[in-house]
Amino acid sequence: MDIIESVKMAGTTLLANKMRSTLTMLGIIIGNASVIAMIGIGEGAQKFVGDQVNSLGTNVLFIVPGSPEAQSRPVYPPQTLVLEDAEAIAEQVPTVQAVAPMLNASELMTFRSRNVSASIVGTNPDILTVRNLDVARGRFISELDLRRNEQVVALGSELAEQLFGNQNPVGQSVRMKNVSLQVIGVMQPKGSTFGDNMDMNAYVPLTTMANRITGRTSPYGMQVTFISVSVRDEQSMGAAQFQIENLLRLRHKITDEDDFTVRNQKDLMNILGSITGALTLMLAAVAGISLFVGGIGIMNIMLVSVTERTKEIGLRKAIGASEQDILIQFVIEAIILSAVGGAIGTGLGIGGVLLVGAFSPLNAGVSAGAIAVAVGVSGGIGLFFGVFPARQAAKLDPIVALRSA
């Protein structure tokens, strides 16, 4: 039998039973849409996490106080990092480009009658390089500001807007813990990183922060919350981490457990990427169950169709149709159901991914690989689950089929 003729006959048969054909395709439609949407959302989550990590800076190492074991305990971390540690890293580690010690606190900032809760960051000028920050107006804190303990502050864009509205903040004064600070600059918008809105930060000289706002609380020197280090290039990350760890062990006279932890930006990216990748795989597997269920639905309906069309099958075999002709006929019908269902499901899945990308921070995109896999799997399911009913139809004895019809 001609394949084109078989396709025409299959289409005519399916169109004659529109409701049954539609309900049969429903499982494939839902399965395809789910697989494509889940993979697209998962890939969007991976891109989002990658962007969040990259927004922390390029080729960055983070040095935090306490060993990994100490950080896992629900207590305040030990105050083991000081400004002198950061200065030693900048001077003695050749692979380092910039070092930004940070002393963080959350305080109420006041301008006239406006009070805004802000994240205060005591740091040095190198934070511009380490965290990829830019100044929109005015200037940033300088080394001279650090040496003189100047009472100056550079505001994040959103913080400046909440405090000053449409006024120019540069040159104005704000108060914090009874300390008056002159606004010297406003930063370019940076956005949020892992829930931390950097546009609500206020940057002050580290010395001013330690001496006038938080006070000195470490017996070893001027305490810092953590140290961010920008390495010259990606190839030097491992060497820089090794050199920093050895330098801090010497400075802290460590013979047993480290009282600090160096975190690699690339390691953080790999950990978060593996987590989001596993979640994407799990979501796709759950969605794939819908495709399997849809395939079973196709098999059930095709078996019902064989029973209903026993007379037709017997008549066609009686006038010369071979078992192969009958087999091809029913397989084509199953493939058409799965292919059409797959196409509709693909369209719905793409639409869902685009909606998620439009109304959420996830940079969800449609993966060509996901579409190819979903459509290929749905077509394969149609073929796989359509073969058994087709073989049942092909093996019918024409005499028995005509007698039982």
Automatic annotation (TrEMBL):
InterPro entries named among the record's database cross-references: ABC3_permease_C, MacB_PCD, Macrolide_Exporter_MacB
The organism that produces this protein has a lineage beginning with:
Bacteria, Bacillati, Cyanobacteriota, Cyanophyceae, Desertifilales
Q: What is its main location?
A: membrane
Q: How does it sit in the membrane?
A: Multi-pass membrane protein
According to UniProt, the name of this protein is ABC transporter permease
Q: Which UniProt keywords apply?
A: Cell membrane, Membrane, Transmembrane, Transmembrane helix
ABC3 transporter permease C-terminal domain location is 285-398
User: Which locations, inside or outside the cell, does it occupy?
Assistant: Cell membrane
One GO MF term: transmembrane transporter activity
Family note: Belongs to the ABC-4 integral membrane protein family.
Q: Which residues cross the membrane?
A: 21-42, 278-305, 326-359, 365-388
Cellular component GO terms held in the UniProt record? plasma membrane
Q: What's one Pfam family the UniProt record gives for this protein?
A: MacB_PCD
Location of the MacB-like periplasmic core domain: 21-247
